[in-house]
Write a structure and sequence with these properties.
By secondary structure, the chain is α+β, with helices and mostly antiparallel strands. Helix content is 51%, strand content 10%. The strands form four sheets. It has a five-stranded mixed β-sheet with strand order 1-2-10-7-3, with helices on one face. A three-stranded antiparallel β-sheet has the order 4-12-11. Helix 10 runs antiparallel to helix 11. The radius of gyration is 21 Å and the shape is globular. The relative contact order is 0.18. It binds protoporphyrin IX containing FE.
Length: 371
């Protein structure tokens, strides 16, 4: 889509799409303006299932503060040895084979296992948990109405199963708190009141929904760049200290999330257009990230780019809570793969199938071979 964005940035930087009935915003400066003004552009969608992602201040900060401590860079850095262990476990069976299914064998299970352990899911339930997590973000098998209906029912059933599972763990942690997120959430209070069981469950489901597929796509998109630009592999092998900036550059160049939605609260003028209160506004961070007004050589992958004010994790008060975790997982994976594998490439003749969501940049499968 990145070629298309370039034309849109130049010709219709802020436009109304009659068909989709929403505004689209393509330039860096305008996207940033939308995301940094929650008073003008609201995240509130679904009052019944309000999560931090879909609430505005002041409620938003109350919810976010509850779990912030678990996601600070320092708290997350402490997970590095465990993430390394999981990455080794998932990768090592494939070293001798010379090929692997990057997504199924590594990029999907890794974030699921990590978040399961953070939340406090016992290792014995991991498979069950992974099936539920996968189902949370599953797409329909085709675009028929029946397939859509079927998917919605499956999702509902799945959410209920997951909710009752979390409820059971909650009961155990109420008796015997541990250091996990469920215990933290059970102890937490907002204005002197404990969270309800539904709120604790909702929090856990938010973390699964927001963190798993996105991290899967970050890992895959990063390896995809390495196989599209093989000279980078040697460069990063010789300079592993550049891996963190290369991960940031992946978030700019191939961001797992390319668009972020808001609703206008008031009539607002943006780049000469008037957006009416109540209208939907889509901020194309995938386009903003390639805006040459913000980035030198915007269409080039520069592994040591610094500064790199990409908006792959969003911007402003809703800036991704899980960013330190996603960065760490991607860093560990790249370090390990580059140490153990050479000439990483997409298996020849593979036809890449994009994920069918306009908001996501990623593929469904990415088989690789290496020496
Ligand atoms: C918010 C991207 C990984 C949890 C966001 C937002 C983006 C994003 C763009 C802003 C949404 C908005 O403004 O409406 C990503 C990407 C990831 C990733 C690209 C991986 C590469 C994770 C992980 C977790 C997580 C691993 C948790 C374990 C969240 C939460 C929010 C959020 C809870 C809402 C924050 C708020 O509303 O204050 N993420 N995310 N994300 N992300 Fe991530």
């Amino acid at each position: 889509p990145f070629q298309v964005y370039a034309g849109l940035r130049d010709n219709t930087p802020v436009r109304y799409d009659n068909h989709r009935e929403c505004w689209d915003v393509f330039r860096y400066e305008d996207v940033q303006y939308v995301l940094k003004n929650p008073k003008l552009f609201s995240s509130e969608r679904d009052r019944a299932n309000a999560s931090m992602l879909t609430t505005d201040p002041p409620k938003h900060k109350q919810l976010r503060d509850l779990v912030n401590q678990a996601f600070t860079p320092k708290a997350i850095e402490a997970l590095a040895p465990r993430i390394q262990e999981i990455a080794d476990e998932l990768l090592s069976p494939h070293f001798s084979e010379g090929r692997m299914r990057l997504i199924d064998d590594l990029a999907t299970p890794l974030p699921v296992i990590v978040i399961a352990e953070l939340i406090g899911v016992p290792a014995t339930d991991r498979q069950k948990f992974k099936d539920w997590s996968d189902a949370l973000v599953k797409g329909a098998r085709d675009d028929s109405d029946e397939a859509f209906q079927e998917l919605m029912e499956e999702k509902k059933r799945n959410q209920q199963e997951l909710a009752s599972y979390f409820t059971a763990i909650m009961e155990e942690r109420r008796q015997r708190p541990e250091g996990d997120l469920i215990s933290i959430l059970l102890a937490a209070e907002i204005e002197g009141e404990k969270l309800t069981a539904e709120e604790v469950v909702g929090f856990c489901i938010l973390l699964l929904a927001a963190g798993n597929e996105t991290t899967t796509n970050l890992i895959t998109n990063a390896v995809r760049i390495l196989s599209e630009q093989p000279e980078l592999q040697q460069q990063l092998r010789e300079h592993p200290e550049l891996i963190p900036t290369a991960v940031e550059e992946t978030l700019r160049y191939y961001p797992p999330i390319v668009a972020i939605g808001r609703i206008a609260k008031e009539n607002v003028e943006l780049n000469g257009q008037t957006i009416q209160a109540g209208e939907q506004v889509i901020s194309w961070v995938g386009s903003a990230n390639r805006d040459s007004a913000q980035f030198d050589q915007a269409e080039k992958f520069v592994p040591d780019r610094k500064p790199n004010r990409h908006m792959g994790f969003g911007f402003g008060i809703h800036f991704c809570l899980g960013a330190p975790l996603a960065r760490l997982e991607a860093r560990v994976v790249l370090q390990t793969m580059l140490r153990q594998m050479e000439d990483i490439q997409l298996v020849p003749e593979t036809v890449l199938q994009p994920i069918q969501s306009a908001f996501v940049f990623g593929v469904k499968e990415y088989p690789i071979q290496f020496t």
